[in-house]
Amino acid sequence: MLRLYDTRNRQVQQIVPDGARSLRMYTCGPTVYRYAHVGNLRSYLLSDLIRRVSERQRVRVVVCRNITDVGHLVDDTELDPAGEDKVQAQARAEGRTALEIARFYEDAFLADAAALNMRPPEHSPRASETMDTTIELIAKLIGKGHAYAVPDGSVFFDAASFPTYGEISGNRLDQLRPGHRTEGVDPRKRFHADWALWKPSDRELTWETPWGRGFPGWHIECSAMALKFLGEHIDLHTGGIDLRFPHHEDERAQSDSAAGHEVVKHWVHGEHLLFDGRKMSKSTGNVVLLRDVVDEGLDPLAVRLAFMEHRYRQQMNLTWDTLRAADKTLRRWRSRVAEWSEFPSRPMPADQVSLIEAAFDDDLDTPLALRLLRELERDDSIAPGSRLEAFLHLDQILGLDLSLDIGRSRSLPAGAAELLEQRERAREARDWPAADRLRDELAALGVKVADTPEGQTWSAFWD
Ligand code: AMP
Ligand code: ZN
């Protein structure tokens, strides 16, 4: 069964308990104010890979991945963010409305997700359309004494009311200092580490509440959407490593305080993607978009493959060379699969396939899984029809469209078909010197032959 590194418990743990048949997973979705870069996409691919591995084990997976279209402020790095909403700031910059911006970049994100073969989540709520639930949740937290409204219409979470704050990131309340931007303690707060659940405002995208008109904080939105769509017992919550604090700490405090128990069993985080040695991030201008990859003539799924060459919880440095290498491997595998599909189907090599599946189960050891897959690719002692079935089966986890070239005619250079036929006959006649000579002649034409128990196969050196 799948084991993953749990950030809060600081160990690798089994995710779906023995005998359980379902997995409920929440993934913090995109803030839709710009194109997602491939670093962001790495975080979402983690969730898709977990889904695919679990589904292979006949676990029914229910995923909620939200769309943040309101409430995420430009500077969310401090415990008490204040300032402009990311979507509204972009709307101003582009001369469009906030909703136009949000829907445009949501569509762009969904197109990227589809190009990367991410399975669509069962629930993709927009924060702006889940507002009743968010407001009810805030009211509940006030009613239970975990939050308080102040005269200007803000509502704050009372951090001290949640003593286990900090278990995910290690940032305990007594170690937190007041934010430097607020220069001391915000006088509206009881305690400097309290954070806003509701902010007063009458701009676009604001709602009426018992405390006044305004909009919610980003953290409470995720709690509300997770509780509404997945309920009070969630197996797994994923996101990029930077979301550990404050976003996930705040989410945990809110959800657990509302439910009266631990809501999320496991927190799993993906490490950052670097590009040319630096963290990929818009603020430093160091970004690659999926369409940049396509503009380079590469298959978008080369990104998916390149990411799997590293484990999700290692930082990974992406370069154009690694992307080109992944693209080449992808094309070769598709061509090999097409070549094997011309042979009779045979049962999968059970031992090899279960070793590869075990690597995925072992905290998503994708580098090992790919190494074993390459060994299987080259193992000519295994019938082509058997390798075919293994690759097609494993592609349900890999998501690389490995069957894409099946049925596409593979073209041989002039004269090669005749040489292949002569060689087949030489093999039948056990005339090994002739078979070797013909192999060399074919190689000179760029055609590589391999002998398998079921006969010879060919592939092109240029693939
Ligand atoms: P945002 O749209 O800014 O809320 O970020 C979306 C997701 O991308 C979050 O889960 C972040 O943790 C994640 N993320 C941001 N930068 C990177 C990066 N360089 N590598 C991997 N994940 C990232
Ligand atoms: Zn979230």
TrEMBL record:
Enzyme Commission number(s): 6.1.1.16
Query: Record's Pfam families?
Result: CysS_C, tRNA-synt_1e
Q: Where is this motif: 'KMSKS' region?
A: 279-283
* Annotated ATP binding sites: K282
- Report the catalytic activity: tRNA(Cys) + L-cysteine + ATP = L-cysteinyl-tRNA(Cys) + AMP + diphosphate
A GO MF label = zinc ion binding
Answer whether the UniProt record assigns the keyword Protein biosynthesis to this protein: yes
- tRNA synthetases class I catalytic domain spans which residues? 19-326
Q: Does the keyword Transcription regulation apply?
A: no
Q: What is this protein called?
A: Cysteine--tRNA ligase
